[in-house]
Design brief:
Elements lengths: L1 H9 L12 H8 L3 H13 L3 E4 L3 E4 L15 H7 L7 H9 L6 E2 L12 H13 L13 H12 L10 E4 L2 H11 L6 E5 L16 E5 L1 E2 L2 E2 L2 H9 L4 E5 L13 H14 L3 E4 L15 H4 L5 E6 L11 E4 L2 H15 L4 H13 L1 H28 L3 E2 L8 E6 L5 H10 L2 E2 L1 E2 L10 E5 L5 H19 L2
Helix pairs in contact: 2-3, 6-13, 7-13, 8-12, 9-10, 14-16, 15-16
């Protein structure tokens, strides 16, 4: 461990000003107890290499070249803190790092289990793509035309009439939000959204000087009258961001009547809409109502879709549907950003859609999600019925769990992690959701899912005792 830290510092990977990992994390990394870590850190402190700051952590303050150098290295910490893009919340960063730990029971992940990944079909698709392979370079700014043509047909089945020229291929829905944030909205704009919302766990809009205003929801989705009330208070440009199908994190499916009311209200208030519909195909009980975009006759809605939740996040393929001038503007910004999504991934996605194999895959996914949801609900009823409440989601990945006993969610999160369970506490989606957990039933094995819920029960009861 000493050699590891010294090498990181000597090679400049941890320059002066870097905050080194916590004692707990170092102990986990090297499989030692904390007393061993403390001894090593004390030796490095005695050498003057690192320094502990009360309540802040331990930082690199010196390296082997400092006394010899005539020119000191840049103060990278100052650059890091000055960047435009705001860092994720500390808990979100911890979760993102922990999600790569295969030893944890992953009840946090918003993706399909590796058990569901269609490996044989993906190999078939890849073979087909390779057999038709031609030299390829940069794509059209809007994306690979055959993919956009396939998407145009696919979207028509959901009531969305969009020609290939009004579709932009992006590297997932998150990039779509980033393009919208820098390409369509000036600094000081307002983003209206459900509260809680996935967007609160990101910094994509706040980083470019926008503010988020949360709107109330009920079991049918966003409350329509909140739009007019909020619009009266707005100054400057605004946009509504909504997840109508199997909302992240609350799991709500917006009713058809509510969708009509939301669209009508936004048209009346001249409030454009970002419809994030990446969970739409993950319905379990019945087909969801038509998208807002399917009812849009005036180009009011920007529609986001993706293969990340239904097929594979590794493909990094998503899309934006909107008015052609808007798509052209966003395509130009995307070209400035990355010169287009992967040509290979776009061809793979096009083959999935054009072959009909994507629809077959979705039918299998829905059946497996139904089984997983049943296992999760049975375990919740068995172990948590007296200490938590929840609604049954009609699709998607998540159960929004309200914990009844008052306890510190930070203590709960840390305790669960120490027992090998990774969870998403509700307060990363809204400060008011401090008594909630977003429980994913899509990723963990069925055995781990049941065991994880049992452990949650034990932790809640232990912490509730004080």
């Amino acid at each position: 461990m000493m050699d590891f830290i010294k090498e990181k510092i000597a090679n400049g990977e941890w320059p002066i000003g870097t905050k080194i990992p916590s004692q707990r994390k170092l102990a986990d990394m090297f499989g030692v107890n904390r007393s061993t870590v403390i001894i090593a850190l004390e030796e490095l402190m005695a050498d003057g290499t690192i320094e502990g700051k009360m309540g802040k952590g331990t930082f690199v303050v010196n390296n082997t070249w400092t006394l010899l150098a005539t020119n000191l290295s840049p103060a990278w910490n100052d650059y890091i803190q000055s960047g435009i893009q705001k860092p994720s919340q500390a808990t979100v960063q911890e979760i993102n790092e922990a999600e790569s730990n295969t030893n944890l029971i992953q009840l946090s992940k918003g993706e399909l289990s590796t058990e569901i990944f269609p490996i044989d079909t993906m190999k078939l698709i890849m073979r087909r793509v390779s057999e038709k392979m031609e030299p390829f370079g940069y794509e059209d700014p809007k994306g690979f035309l055959p993919l956009r043509q396939s998407l145009s047909s696919y979207l028509r089945a959901n009531g969305i009439h969009a020609s290939p020229s009004s579709i932009l291929i992006v590297s997932g829905a998150l990039q779509a939000l980033q393009l919208i944030s820098v390409g369509l909205l000036p600094r000081g704009s307002t983003v209206l959204l459900e509260k809680p919302s996935y967007l609160y766990s990101l910094r994509v809009f706040q980083s470019v000087g926008m503010k988020l205003i949360g709107l109330p929801i009920d079991e049918y989705g966003l409350l329509p009258n909140s739009l007019s009330l909020s619009s009266k208070k707005l100054r400057g440009r605004a946009i509504l961001y909504t997840i109508p199908c199997f909302h992240n994190p609350a799991g709500i499916l917006m009713s058809e009547k509510r969708r009509q009311e939301i669209l009508h209200g936004c048209e009346k208030e001249q409030l454009p809409i970002i419809e994030d519909d990446i969970y739409r195909e993950l319905w379990i009980d019945e087909l969801p109502p038509p998208p807002l975009k399917a009812m849009d006759r005036h180009g009011h809605v920007l529609y986001l879709g993706s293969l990340s939740k239904t097929l594979s996040p590794g493909l990094r393929i998503g899309w934006i549907v909107g008015p052609e001038p808007v798509i052209k503007r966003l395509a130009d910004i995307k070209m400035q950003t990355d010169y287009g999504s992967s040509s290979l991934s776009q061809r793979v996605a096009a083959e999935w859609l054009a072959s009909g194999l994507y629809q077959q895959h979705l039918e299998s996914v829905r059946e497996l999600l139904k089984i997983r949801r049943a296992v999760a609900l049975e375990a919740l009823e068995t172990y948590l019925s007296d200490i938590a409440t929840w609604d049954i989601p009609k699709g998607g990945f998540f159960i929004w769990l309200k914990i009844l006993p008052k306890l510190s969610m930070r203590d709960f999160y840390v305790k669960a992690l120490s027992k090998g369970i990774l969870l998403n506490p509700g307060n990363i989606y809204a400060q008011e959701a401090n008594r909630y957990l977003r429980l994913s039933f899509a990723y963990a094995t069925l055995k781990d899912l049941k065991n994880g819920i049992y452990q949650i029960n034990q932790i809640i009861r232990e912490l509730a005792k004080g």
